[in-house]
Design goal:
The protein is α/β, with parallel strands linked by helices. It has one domain: Dinitrogenase iron-molybdenum cofactor biosynthesis domain (Nucleotidyltransferase, domain 5, 2-Layer Sandwich), CATH 3.30.420. The protein contains three helices and six strands, in the order ββββαβαβα. Strands 1, 2, 3, 4, 5 and 6 form a six-stranded mixed β-sheet that branches. A hairpin with a 2-residue loop joins β1 and β2. The chain is globular and about 30 Å long.
Length: 128
């Protein structure tokens, strides 16, 4: 199974639609077998569901994500674990060990209200 984590500099990137890359882990038999970083090449919000589907991801782990993106992930058959922060490697280990809660609700609901910070959502309405 492939698990994709929004990624920048070893950390879970906090804004799904602006992630510069995904760290994609191959998970089998309760352990991580391999990983690679895949650049999104500037692909944004709407196209990321297709991007993840194209690489065969079945699970997305991210920081903040909006309702439209969650719906797109659901339509693509990708399970969403939102609200993660810190080390991407620690997040995958929490997922593999069953300690990462699945969140199906939007954690970033302020699109059109101004501020997405450079390194994340940058808005108090986003869970981190």
């Amino acid at each position: 199974m492939k698990v994709a984590i929004t990624y920048e500099n070893g950390e879970v990137f906090q804004h799904f639609g602006r992630t510069p890359a995904f760290k994609v882990y191959e998970v089998a038999d309760g352990k991580v077998n391999s990983s690679e970083v895949i650049d999104t090449n500037g692909t944004g919000h709407g196209a990321l569901a297709g991007f993840l589907g194209g690489i065969g991801a079945e699970v997305l782990i991210c920081g903040g994500i909006g309702g439209g993106a969650i719906a797109a992930m659901n339509d693509a058959g990708i399970k969403v674990y939102a609200g993660a922060s810190g080390s991407a490697d620690e997040a995958i280990n929490a997922y593999v060990n069953g300690n990462l809660p699945q969140i199906g609700d939007a954690t970033c609901d302020h699109h059109g209200h101004g501020g997405h910070g450079e390194n994340g959502c940058g808005h108090g309405g986003c869970h981190q």
